[in-house]
Amino acid sequence: MPLKEIARDVFCLPVGFANVYFVGAPDSWVLIDTAFPGNAVEIRTAAEAIYGDSARPEAILLTHGHWDHAGSALDLAELWNVPIVAHPLELPYLTGRSNYPPPDPTVGGFIAFYSRLIKARPCLLGNAVQSLESGREAPGLPAWEWHHTPGHSPGHIVFFRREDGILLAGDAIITVNFNSFFATTLGVPRVCGPPAPFTPDWPRAHESVRLLAELRPQTIACGHGTPMTGGKAVMQLAELATNFPIPHRGRYIEEPARTDETGVVSLPPEPPGRLPGVAIAVGLAAAAGAMVAVAAYRRKQSTKADTPAQAL
Fold first, then answer.
1. Beta pairing partners, 147
2. How many Cβ atoms sit within 10 Å of the Cβ of residue 256?
3. Per-domain residue ranges of the chain
4. Per-residue b or e along 139-164, where b marks 16 or more CB atoms closer than 10 Å to that residue's CB
5. Contact 245, 193 (CB under 8 A)
6. How many CB atoms lie within 10 A of CB 285?
7. Rounded Cα gap, residues 189 and 173, in angstroms
8. Are 259 and 89 in contact (CB under 8 A)?
9. Of 111, 118, 108, 105, which Cα lies nearest the Cα of 287?
10. What is the CATH number of domain 4-266?
11. For 170, phi and psi rounded to 5 degrees?
């Protein structure tokens, strides 16, 4: 999906499998999330396409500090000379005071397997990051409010505009099923819970989803997946809040990670479940084969779309 206006003065830019959002009018706008390290040029180019060559936001707002959301924050903040703003409970992880709770690949599913193969780097923002002030109004966004939605990370926040019901949900929920390789690769839209291997507090994650359902958003735009709007999105969010799927196994299922304003306080024991090299190789081979199948499926669908209908 290319750069697209998904609501009045709200633009979504997919970068890899993460989304960033440009919110506001040319005279006053903010950037929400910054995708991965190395994406600053692509994001700046999109900003200039929307707002003009001298585009410069009021601030960079982070839903949370994971590397696929804060990866290019420092480069962009230095480029534009603007502050980065995050919830105070995210600051320990953005300033090097603490590491996030480690991911849990034992929860199962496609993205959990993938998490074994990557090592996310901390995003160290130093003095460039500022603490989000108390209250409900989002900085630089007078018509918006923010809500604290922990679970996926301690200081995770979302942004909500009540006048038209648009929700920028970060990873508190996502609109793609990361547990399924095919759903992820094909981008099948579906309101789902947060990415499982990177969620260290499931009770609070569920509470956050309930809060989002109570807001009754009409448009749901997340950190991952295609933005969804209308009755289907509302019903799927309500269903998720009622029947919140918690993995059957995993490090944080019985006991969450304990955190405070200094960072991680305690962690449950690491469960057994490391894959040997052979298993990883087999998994990669299976994934490669599945990618070939997906490519063939897409070609078939494209051919169907390009074939003229038969005369009756």
1. 158
2. 21
3. 4-266, 276-304
4. bbbeebebbbbbbbbbbbbbbbbeee
5. yes
6. 10
7. 12
8. yes
9. 111
10. 3.60.15.10
11. 55, -130
Task: Per-residue pLDDT tens, the chain, 312 aa: give them.
Answer: 589 999 999 999 999 999 999 999 999 999 999 999 999 999 999 999 999 999 999 999 999 999 999 999 999 999 999 999 999 999 999 999 999 999 999 999 998 888 888 777 899 999 999 999 888 888 899 999 999 999 999 999 999 999 999 999 999 999 999 998 998 889 899 999 999 999 999 999 999 999 999 999 999 999 999 999 999 999 999 999 999 999 999 999 999 999 999 999 999 999 885 544 434 433 443 443 333 333 333 334 333 333 332 222
Helix, strand, coil percentages in the chain from 3-state DSSP, rounded to 5: 35, 20, 45
Count other C-beta atoms under 10 Å from residue 104's C-beta. 25
Q: Kindly give the pairing relationship between strand 84-86 and strand 129-131.
A: parallel
